Amino acid sequence: MAEQMDAVQPTAAAQERIPTVIADELHIVYRVYGTGTGKGSATAALSRIVRRRPSVGVREVHAVKGVSFTAYRGESIGLIGSNGSGKSTLLKAVAGLLPAERGKVYTHGQPSLLGVNAALMNDLTGEKNVVLGGLAMGMSREQVRERYDEIVDFSGINEKGDFISLPMRTYSSGMAARLRFSIAAAKDHDVLLIDEALATGDRAFQKRSEARIRELRKEAGTVFLVSHNNNSIRDTCDRVLWLERGELLMDGPTDEVIKAYEKQTGK
Ligand SMILES: Nc1ncnc2c1ncn2[C@@H]1O[C@H](COP(=O)(O)OP(=O)(O)OP(=O)(O)O)[C@@H](O)[C@H]1O
């Protein structure tokens, strides 16, 4: 009888815990070509193609090794680990930008990766980039028009003059990163992936970004944040995944994981 009740009416806990991203024994391998020491001539390359032999200079980098986790709606998850531990690679794989060598990533809804390198057009004005970025994220022209002022205000680009009508190439790296973040943060995301974006703005902008991330979480999205700034992670995330050499070393509440990480790294 109890089983039947459960089937018809999910418990409150089950309602709250809606999975948005599942990584199942995920492996990501990069292949780097042209790393051989010998000189590669065109004839040698042609003969390899004809004889179907792999290139001598291919190196493999196994960047993510058997990582498994489930992320739920409303969670904000920090990714930490030393340089080269696989954080950005894992984020790109969740965004669907890198193929899995083995294992799988399942996502509910459309994940959006917000990197400091997100592609905007340097020769276009900030104004045009807001429209372009909004459309690229799947917003309608109408939605972009509605949110335009909000995006520009949030970015703070116009605080010191009319910069939004200048080409993006005239912006400082911090200004460009703020505009990227503001464009991405204007949309309500199912799964928002942020790579170091918070580290680039000034303190006031970082505070605004943190507040917006909290809002996005309330609007039922899941946020992933890669950062080397443990305070940013502490202020924004309730759960942390710690990667080292591509392996998931620890997955748990922020305080516990950061404490263990700081103990190990001596920071
Ligand atoms: N495009 C690429 N081609 C080949 N190898 C790569 C590529 N990108 C990353 N790697 C390698 O994959 C591994 C993980 O890199 P990744 O950028 O994911 O680490 P990270 O934890 O984000 O590092 P950081 O904190 O320095 O940004 C590293 O060994 C790196 O050299």
UniProtKB/TrEMBL annotation:
UniProt GO molecular function: ATP binding
Pfam families the UniProt entry points to: ABC_tran
Keyword Nucleotide-binding: yes
Keywords: ATP-binding, Nucleotide-binding, Transport
Record bears the keyword Nucleotidyltransferase: no
Domain (ABC transporter) ranges: 44-267
PROSITE patterns in the cross-refs: ABC_TRANSPORTER_1, ABC_TRANSPORTER_2
Superkingdom in the source lineage: Bacteria
Homology family: Belongs to the ABC transporter superfamily.
Official protein name in the record: ABC transporter ATP-binding protein
Organism field: Streptomyces albospinus
